[in-house]
Automatic annotation (TrEMBL), chains A, B, C:
Cofactors that this protein relies on: Mg(2+)
The protein, known as: Hydroxyethylthiazole kinase
Organism listed in the record: Acinetobacter shaoyimingii
NCBIfam families: PRK09355.1 (NF006830)
Superkingdom per UniProt: Bacteria
Gene Ontology molecular-function annotations: ATP binding; hydroxyethylthiazole kinase activity; magnesium ion binding
Amino acid sequence: MAINIPNLDSILAAHQALKNQKPLVQCITNSVSVNFMANVLLSAGASPAMVDNPEEAAEFVNFAQGLVINLGTPTSALVEAMQLAIQQASHLKKPWVLDPIAAGALSWRGQIAADFLSFKPTVIRGNASEIIGLAGLGANSRGFDSSNDPAHSVEAAKSLLDHASAVSASGEIDHIVAKTSHETGEKFWLAKIKGGSHFFPLVTASGCSLGALVAAYTSVTDPFNAVVSAHAHYAVAGKKAHLKTDAPGDFQREFINELYNVTADDFEQYLEFSVEELVAA
Amino acid sequence: MAINIPNLDSILAAHQALKNQKPLVQCITNSVSVNFMANVLLSAGASPAMVDNPEEAAEFVNFAQGLVINLGTPTSALVEAMQLAIQQASHLKKPWVLDPIAAGALSWRGQIAADFLSFKPTVIRGNASEIIGLAGLGANSRGFDSSNDPAHSVEAAKSLLDHASAVSASGEIDHIVAKTSHETGEKFWLAKIKGGSHFFPLVTASGCSLGALVAAYTSVTDPFNAVVSAHAHYAVAGKKAHLKTDAPGDFQREFINELYNVTADDFEQYLEFSVEELVAA
Amino acid sequence: MAINIPNLDSILAAHQALKNQKPLVQCITNSVSVNFMANVLLSAGASPAMVDNPEEAAEFVNFAQGLVINLGTPTSALVEAMQLAIQQASHLKKPWVLDPIAAGALSWRGQIAADFLSFKPTVIRGNASEIIGLAGLGANSRGFDSSNDPAHSVEAAKSLLDHASAVSASGEIDHIVAKTSHETGEKFWLAKIKGGSHFFPLVTASGCSLGALVAAYTSVTDPFNAVVSAHAHYAVAGKKAHLKTDAPGDFQREFINELYNVTADDFEQYLEFSVEELVAA
């Protein structure tokens, strides 16, 4: 799908399309996230399917509208299922999202993630240090510093656009990069979305589940708008939930409520979003 | 156990027996459901045990009062554990429940489910399309149409009574079929229970956990009454929870509360239940 | 670390150290507990990491400050990961906690637990019957009776001090034993902490997650104080949560809130704690 520059209208249109189409999202993910991720997708308006064994993973891609591959707790069987699903998604030109948890820190999954990159994920989503770590795995590793601030991962994210159509580093302010192609060459873009709550890092699998929501959105809009819309949906629901709570147990419950409840008005009222051209230094 | 026609009194008696006996239910289930299922059983009054490896599954059947086999996210090791547990349950004549998630849609698990059918589950529980899909796997497949309305799955459910003592298709109105044997031949029965909330499909594993609750009830009453009582317990708790909530995060929490809180008075006030003889068309 | 006799001041100091240091705790645990355990650690102030495959388990121990090994739903791959992680923790002299779920009841995991004991866990945590069962697995089995009352497990717990620095049996009143070495020989100690709520047994994985919190505390204080502080943190949060709720769904949420919220004042107000010398009968 051709990449356009997202704005509030394109985000609202994607959100409405998600609600209408209820895309079926195949999740091959870690054991910590599997239940919360399914509930996030259901509340947000999508349909989850955790078909993650090597015997069925590729067959199910035929039915799925989106796919998320999350490296949180890989096992040899899970990795085999991932490989088969990715190959089938590539073959069918279906969108898929790579969430490279800790790929830069642990050697086995680092190899796996580097291999997966060659299959060209539609989107890569991680936190800042994961994006930096993943970029460092490539053949032309540039040795990025590790950091938790997404602003420090923009160069790493940009380098990953060799493999993916859009790359997101989430954090206090989510940073999302993509490029557009023009007759005069490529342009690089950076979208920023202010995250909704400091409680997110205290709810396990909230980042992983955002990756699944990105996969849901990739089935209804172009990759850049998909990543921005998923992060916007998350940030707005998170902000509304945060206003009602002051501890992580309540936040988790209210966040699920608000993923379900958010309206176009909420996006207009709560979303803090900007997009700018990234000019080479 | 001889099958009787359930009524409010038999449901209340089963609920009281569950609370008193706290049956130990072995769950070999999918990764999405494992935590929620355990909490559902605990709140409802049973004791869960997720012993699901091939090394211990059969040994644990010796201690368990009921067993649920759920095909949501099968792995080769999990399937081996299921086979061993089912064989031991058959050998010891302990009740077990088959939840054939997506068995009609995916070929590998379809084979597995067909194999499990030959071990005669006490109860089969699924949604309408799963019951239809499972019935279509048998040697004499009658090619039922796929549908989400349990009313359309009654013929499929009835055909599965060749293998199981009772079959349930859950949905907006749960449909449960069973047969009784008489000197003059067999009679077929259809029980209907109005489900408690449209939020159930937005809480992942709520259907799977109902299958586990059916397994709990099979240890305290006959199979038809067990299925009806478990669905009644669910529907009444769901209706009470629904009255207090308007979003899925809250519903999930209140449902766990109400599974624990429901009283005989609640069954009398909220249960919408009927049973009729099924006459061949 | 040398063992001291815990008191309110040492508990408060450990709690403050946990909040300041946010120790990274590697959890190799059962599938039921994995999500709740991560949220418990996050709310309490630690950082969870569920790195549990054989390819990475030992490598991650290099980064972890504490390790918990939980035998709830072992698989052959998980057990291999546990063995590798335990060996590396022993090699690096990093603290680790053994949670021997059902080790006395099932033969396969009984062998595994007995093998793990030889690697000298820093702490063993279980419920009373698990502590009794584990003690019965040793070469000099003394055939302890099974029981759910921690008071009946004190002799079993004491015998396990041959392998571990501190042993806890949790229940209505948690019983924790440890020994100190003096010029004149050894002294044995028994700490008791009144548990916070009768809803704990209705929230699956609440015991498992306590084991992970013990592992977190072992990285900031000596083993006896670590066990006592983790149990105290749990009991105080549980008591505060219990005051606000009357059903298990609400209790689970409030408990996560209170793990996050508890203050030094709360410990002073709610903790019911005693420690005494254990004199041989």
